[in-house]
Amino acid sequence: MKTWQRLKKQPELWKRYFLREQVIRDIREFFHTRGFHEVETPLLLKNPPAESYVDVFRTTLYDRHRNPTDAYLATSPETSLKKLLAAGIGNCFALTKSFRNMETQSRLHNPEFTILEWYRTGVAYEKIMSDCEDLLKALSGVSGQKLRYQGNIIDVSPPWDRMTITEAFSRFAGINSHDLYDVKRLAGAARKKGYRTDGATWEQIYNQIFLNEIEPKLGLRKPVILYEYPAAVAALARIRKDNPLVAERFEFYIGGLEMGDAYTELIDWREQESRFKREMKEIERLGKTVYDYDQDFIQALKSGLPDCSGIAVGVDRIVMLLADVNDIAETLFFPGKDLFGAE
Amino acid sequence: MATITTADFRKGMFIEFKNEPHQILDFQHVNPGKGSAFVRTKLKSLKSGRVQEFTFKSGESVVEVSVETREMQYLYREGDVFIFMDNRTYEQYHVQSGLIGDFVKYLRANDTHQLLIHNDSVVGIRLPKKVRLTVTEADAGAKGNTATGATKVVTLETGARVTVPLFIREGDIIAIDPETNSYLERSA
């Protein structure tokens, strides 16, 4: 049965779906009252952000003479927002759709999803951490600062728990920092736990342990901010000057759900370009849809991106949390599986 | 035994996990933030019946376990052990209740079921889409809970208690989905 048919049959379900409306309104209000500019970023791009872990949707743009150009649906508004930051917009946010391919058969993903990104200039990522605490508190669905989610009562009032990745691996998986940052030692520790490590990269072993032993325990009573990610998974985060092993990246988890991913942004264009090139090589190696990385974005960094920090938050997951549902489809009037058939 | 990868995963399939056969009850693709792809599974041990979650690397190879199904008649119960008979060979099998799980409450003597066999021992039961059983106790005058759509609870001949619509009466034969324990229909 399609969602609209279920709503017709069970009108009591409307309430759950209307939560999204309120969340969107609250988010806009939150940032407008703090003086952020809301910007619209393109959904159709010539050069999506170079990310080997994301599959893009490719389409074709034609001019009036039917000359084709490859075009891609945005996987995030990040590069567009950073161009505006380089141009001098200051604090800004986008609340928009993004598209990621090949993410079916997952209760946490929908081919198109609503993403919130905000950036602050002149601050490091600690300020974004407190923004997250304040934002959750400001959402109308959060009554009395306690949330019931999938059988857990979660106290979302600030301050949240904060834990470095190194601490999390030591506490939940019994892996010390000595082993964590060394591919051979980490593989050895993983094999002892019964994981198969043949042909696995450091990132795969790291994430497999993380997903099996750490993530399910995160944020069941209080939201958790995990910070200081290993440099190997820095993504677009700045490496710590006093500790080159870790990057200024954090994620926050509530009720076992990964809600957002934040960085003190990398502003060094050379480092950014070399990371892009590395990602493009990886995309080719993995046999994924190949595209050109965004030279215009590198130009923007070259022109001078101010010191800034930012975050991407899955808005659908916030709605999941407030609606106490464990499938993203239960928050969408038109989930991908209604449109394209359940897999 | 065949080597497969996570791309071949299907619900209900049997794989070797930590050197023991497990059934894949459910699986989900997961992508950690800025990370490669993984497959999160819910696995049920055929030996202990214990259910646990495990996340595989996407593309990781695993061994598929061959499990065959045989038609067997349920005979009787001895404490925690249920005695079944292979309809073809007449051989009897002693099955621990844990392997049958919640379905024990629908077992009626002489009914035939599909049992799962691995290394010549019973490792589980394939749940039928529906079971048909007679209602032995139903409160005729029950007003039911109208707020939740007018239902009441009745007792079936095997002792199982299920929630049904108000019109169901003692002596009716009804169909139940054993997976969800929900009422499906009244048989004519």
UniProtKB/TrEMBL annotation, chain A:
The record's section on NCBIfam families has: genX, PRK09350.1
Which species does the entry assign this protein to?
Candidatus Gottesmanbacteria bacterium RBG_16_52_11
Q: Which InterPro entries match?
A: Aa-tRNA-synt_II, aa-tRNA-synth_II, aa-tRNA-synth_II/BPL/LPL, EpmA, Lys-tRNA-synth_II_C
What biological-process GO terms show up in the record? lysyl-tRNA aminoacylation
A molecular-function term among this protein's GO annotations? tRNA binding
Q: Does the keyword Nucleotide-binding apply?
A: yes
Name used for this protein in its record: EF-P lysine aminoacylase GenX
How is this protein annotated for GO cellular component? cytosol
Does the record carry Nucleotide-binding as a key word? yes
Domain spans labelled Aminoacyl-transfer RNA synthetases class-II family profile: 19-335
Automatic annotation (TrEMBL), chain B:
One GO biological-process annotation of the entry reads: peptide biosynthetic process
Signal sequence span per UniProt?
A: none
Molecular function (Gene Ontology), one example: translation elongation factor activity
The question of whether Cytoplasm is a record keyword is answered with: yes
**What are the record keywords, sorted?**
Cytoplasm, Elongation factor, Protein biosynthesis
Residues forming the Translation elongation factor P/YeiP central domain are: 69-123
Look up the record and report any one GO term of the cellular component aspect. Answer: cytosol
The entry sums up its family as follows:
Belongs to the elongation factor P family.
Q: What is this protein called?
A: Elongation factor P
Look up and give the organism this protein is from.
Candidatus Gottesmanbacteria bacterium RBG_16_52_11
